[in-house]
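STRUCTURE:
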């Protein structure tokens, strides 16, 4: 029988989702959902993982769960085609994490480059919460619980996925073929891999205040694009401009389509012509930013409008999350059962063990 193709992906609920999430993962998820190439798609809101570095702000995480759910639905994630669930509502994940901890050394976790970067970013060097330090193991539980064959993530998460593969290989070597080894699915195109913040910084981050949110109003989007980082040496329209590090052109790489020129800037045939004019001089930042604003408004307006519709019935959104979590828990419980059988700790279900012990002690 052909192995099922299963996707597992998700987001930490620490606030509303922004266009970096959209370009990096959400847009792709909708495409994958529509393609019908996968037997199952699981998309989860990683609230338990978010608490590992927000334990003193539980309300922030709690309030953000519905924000993420609304953004999912607004972007086109369909609960009829994708199972959307909340991580903390699947207790089986905790048990799997507990068993996997025995398969990973502290030294191996310390070598994980993604963990190193995240620790530095959060200034945890002197005092790392154990839950945060071990989240690659928790992530392995998330992935393997649903026997995911494919995990769509950015390049920066590749070390995390490799850690999951190591756990799977070690478990299967000790206990027999039980877990599925996942493959990474990287975003298409370099522009989609990492969208910088509006201030030009490498990472779009809520804490840095350099995000354009999917739920921003049209005025907020326009204002944020207006203040976007370009080329600090491009002082006059006549000055030659640089594309490298220019956030406006990075965003155009991610969002611009040929038809946008027909609609909003018909004096240029395509993006390459626009770039050429900018680099030789004679094209001002204001004109380019207006073009980008028009493109983003076209992309974000339908998302914003759909979100408003879902906001009108919040109980229905929570009901969708409850049903998704129940379905996800059923799948995770089956995997946990397989793991317990493989580890031979399913004592009460193992009738052979009970008979064997009864016979053994009966003779003695």
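SEQUENCE:
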């Amino acid at each position: 029988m052909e192995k099922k193709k299963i996707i597992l992906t998700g987001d930490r609920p620490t606030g509303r989702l922004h266009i970096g999430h959209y370009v990096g993962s959400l847009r792709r998820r909708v495409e994958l959902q529509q393609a019908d190439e996968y037997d199952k798609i699981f998309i989860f809101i990683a609230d338990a993982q978010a608490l590992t570095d927000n334990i003193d702000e539980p309300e922030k995480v709690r309030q953000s769960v519905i924000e993420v759910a609304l953004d999912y639905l607004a972007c086109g994630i369909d609960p009829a085609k994708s199972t959307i669930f909340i991580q903390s509502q699947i207790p089986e994940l905790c048990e799997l994490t507990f068993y996997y901890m025995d398969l990973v050394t502290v030294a191996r976790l310390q070598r994980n480059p993604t963990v190193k970067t995240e620790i530095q970013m959060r200034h945890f060097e002197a005092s790392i919460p154990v839950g945060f330090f071990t989240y690659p193991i928790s992530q392995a539980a998330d992935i393997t619980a649903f026997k995911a064959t494919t995990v769509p993530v950015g390049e920066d998460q590749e070390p995390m996925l490799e850690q999951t593969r190591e756990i799977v290989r070690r478990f299967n070597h000790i206990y027999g073929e039980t877990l599925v080894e996942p493959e990474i699915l990287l975003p298409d195109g370099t522009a989609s891999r990492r969208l910088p913040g509006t201030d030009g910084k490498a990472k779009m981050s809520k804490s840095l205040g350099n995000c354009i949110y999917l739920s921003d109003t049209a005025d907020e989007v326009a204002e944020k694009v207006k203040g976007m980082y370009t080329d600090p040496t491009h002082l006059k329209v006549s000055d030659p401009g640089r594309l490298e590090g220019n956030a406006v052109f990075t965003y155009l790489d991610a969002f611009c389509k040929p038809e946008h020129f027909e609609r909003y800037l018909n004096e240029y045939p395509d993006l390459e012509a626009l770039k050429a004019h900018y680099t030789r001089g004679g094209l001002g930042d204001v004109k380019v930013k207006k073009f980008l604003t028009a493109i983003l408004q076209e992309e974000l307006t339908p998302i914003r409008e759909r979100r408003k519709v879902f906001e009108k019935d919040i109980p229905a959104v929570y009901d969708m999350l409850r049903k998704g979590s129940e379905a996800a828990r059923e799948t995770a419980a089956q995997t946990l059962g397989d793991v317990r059988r493989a580890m031979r700790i399913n004592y009460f279900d193992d009738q052979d063990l009970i008979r064997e012990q009864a016979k053994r002690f009966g003779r003695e």
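REMARK: The first strand starts at residue 6 and ends at 11.
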